[in-house]
Amino acid sequence: MKYSIFSLARAALSGHKNWQPTWRDAAPKDRYDVVIIGGGGHGLATAWFLASEFGIRNVAVLEKGWIGSGNAGRNTTIIRSNYGLPGNTGFYELSMKLWERMEQDLNYNAMVSQRGVINLYHSDAQRDAFARRGNTMRINGIDAELLDQTALRKMLPFLNFDNARFPVQGGLLQRRGGTARHDAVVWGYAHAASALGVDIIQNCEVTGFTRDANGKVTGVETSRGKIGAGKVGMAVAGSSSRVAAMAGLRLPIESHVLQAFVSEAIKPLIPGVMTFGAGHFYVSQSDKGGLVFGGDIDGYNSYAQRGNLPVMEDVCEGGMALIPMIGRVRLLRQWGGIMDMSMDGTPIIDKSPVDGLYINAGWCYGGFKATPGSGFVFAHLIARDQSHKEAARFRLDRFQRGAMIDEKGQGAQPNLH
Amino acid sequence: MRIVCPFCGERELGEFTYLGDAKPQRPAAGADAVYDYVYLRDNVAGVMSEHWYHGGGCRAWLKVTRNTLTHEISAVEPAAGAGAAKVGA
Fold first, then answer.
1. I need a surface site. Which of A114, A117, A391, A408 has the fewest CB within 10 A?
2. B14 and chain A: CB distance < 8 Å anywhere?
3. What angle do CA B51, A75, A174 make, to 5 degrees?
4. Looking at this predicted complex, what is its ipTM?
5. Which fold would CATH assign to domain A117-176+255-342?
6. Which of the following CATH numbers is that of domain B2-23+32-87: 3.10.20.30, 3.30.70.360, 3.40.50.880, 3.30.2270.10?
7. Sign of torsion, CA A351 A205 A376 A183?
8. Does A241 sit within 8 Å of B68, measured CB to CB?
9. Is B69 on the interface with A (CB under 8 A)?
10. Residues forming CATH 3.30.9.10 domain(s) in chain A
11. How many whole angstroms separate alpha carbon B49 and alpha carbon B32?
12. What is the pLDDT along chain A (417 residues), one digit of tens a residue?
């Protein structure tokens, strides 16, 4: 089905009764050229790029639940490319450029909205650090503007500028950043991948790998039977260690829970995405009017997909410090997702030490913005057995080589990234 | 989630800071062993023994046995080191 103004008009005239499912819910075949484990944004994007860019269409995406039921549907929908370290800067800009053309590429409305992302600074030292990051971005051809308090007062007049402890001095703005409708990203990739012949198989949990005499992965064992594969890629976020363990691997990853929150709907208030620089609080406003916000991970290993109260309190305190008037808004919903926190806060996209198994993991709590870029470079790696140049530093062995990419400079303590 | 500190009694989570899996032991030497100790984790899905610091209370290090799938805590003991002498651990 191809979507256009005409298809919309046709469906409207027939009372919206004739819409067809946008992708095929497939049953597993015996064998595929490539099997992707994980039907989230990254897995589906990988399958679509394999089919559309690299000509590999005999592909299956295996999802243990329903597609988008993990972190793809649990994030705060922010997209941006304001990273400062070599390795990250180029990769996230590649992803941002793919966001900008995604809806045309996929023929699907993902509500990509470049409404701007601003990181606020609260001290002279923080301003200098942000200026440096902004300069790094601009040298790499990415838009960045350093705003002073005068400019910020016009843009976000409701901020607590004169907070005695954390006065808002200004911010680093990336106008091309913004938000996207997270579920629609999943459905869009499923729609486009399915149309190119990719099998999307739900309720199909991988329980093990089949391997030949040399140890090469030849397929997967699943809750729906054995499925043979030329190559297997895993993009399973918080479950990365569990899936890798089935192939006998230990990863430099811990799984932690991150909460996100939505308030009741209010009139338009927050024009873009903003982050509090003196605490950990980020917020945007959805098109339905709810404030979508979050903060730190809870800070301890968890697979429970639910958070605890102290972090909720901390996040809300951050919000109150920055925008005192949101104390009048009621919290509507809260949820938790399981993050694959890597040891340097940066993802791993690499061949694994097991022949035939490819790893896409360690996204910490920044995976959503990376969805198209991750899919593209992972498809490149699987198709060509070679890292894409923008992902060449996301190697699994970088910890052994001392080539970490630690944007926050926290060291090997995953709950601090 | 609340933790019953052996020194202070039951306290809310905000008083505690998490370090991580208590299993890795610092090796004497060897690049591979150090890499393993610093970077690789079992990342247990289930019952795990881990180190917590009671910064908002007695400031002792604790060894907590907790299920990462349910957050259920089955045991809290003083970790060897700070404060442990008080209870003869």
1. A408
2. yes
3. 110
4. 0.91
5. D-Amino Acid Oxidase; Chain A, domain 2 (3.30.9)
6. 3.30.2270.10
7. negative
8. no
9. yes
10. 117-176+255-342
11. 24
12. 789 999 999 999 999 998 999 999 999 999 999 999 999 999 999 999 999 999 999 999 999 999 999 999 999 999 999 999 999 999 999 999 999 999 999 999 999 999 999 999 999 999 999 999 999 999 999 999 999 999 999 999 999 999 999 999 999 999 999 999 999 999 999 999 999 999 999 999 999 999 999 999 999 999 999 999 999 999 999 999 999 999 999 999 999 999 999 999 999 999 999 999 999 999 999 999 999 999 999 999 999 999 999 999 999 999 999 999 999 999 999 999 999 999 999 999 999 999 999 999 999 999 999 999 999 999 999 999 999 999 999 999 999 999 999 999 999 999 998
- The single-letter code of the amino acid at A156 is L
Q: Scan for tokens 């040399």, then name that residue.
A: A214
Per-window interface: B 27-56 vs A, CB < 8 A: 35, 38-45, 48, 50, 52
Flag if A255 and B68 touch (Cβ within 8 Å).
Answer: yes
Q: How close, in Å, is residue B19 to chain A by CA atoms?
A: 8
User: Would you kindly state where each structural domain of chain B is located, as residue ranges?
Assistant: 2-23+32-87
Q: What distance in Å separates the CA atoms of residue A348 and residue A257, rounded to the nearest whole number?
A: 19
A64 CB neighbours in chain B (<8 A) are: none
CATH of domain A24-108+181-252+344-416: 3.50.50.60
Contact at CB, B20 and A415, closer than 8 angstroms: yes
